[in-house]
Amino acid sequence: MHLSSKRIVMVVLLLILGVLGLAACGGSKGPDIRISNPWARPSPKMASSGAAYMIIENKGKEDDALIGVEGDVSNAIEIHEMVVDENNVMHMKPVEGQRLVIPAKGKVELKPGGYHIMLIGLKHQLKEGEVVHLTLKFEKSGEIQVDAPVKMGG
Ligand SMILES: [Cu+2]
What we know:
By secondary structure, the chain is mainly β.
């Protein structure tokens, strides 16, 4: 008798813990993408391309990936990274497969000297004060609109 009531108490405790656990994580699964501090660099006169930066955070429990960016500011938009070659010279190149993984509970910072969104074939010079509208495409989270103000530095 004593033993079984102890057992019931245990079961009730486990149930309560289970409910609390579900409440704590909101019952949500999958990735949870947040974009912060988007900005674009002013482009020098005559420059044919520009760059945009931001912090992409994934507060969810599943990886996601940035798989493309669209916008009407330039003829094409690519996800780029910086790499150092055998001569210790920095180059930029398109991210392999145009797929930038944003790990669960992690973040990827797009910044000068690192990952960036390359605006290729600018339709006009990017001047401080204007805003670049971009549509980020994620593998699981779908499309996210971002307004990146043109300014010096992040
Ligand atoms: Cu680039």
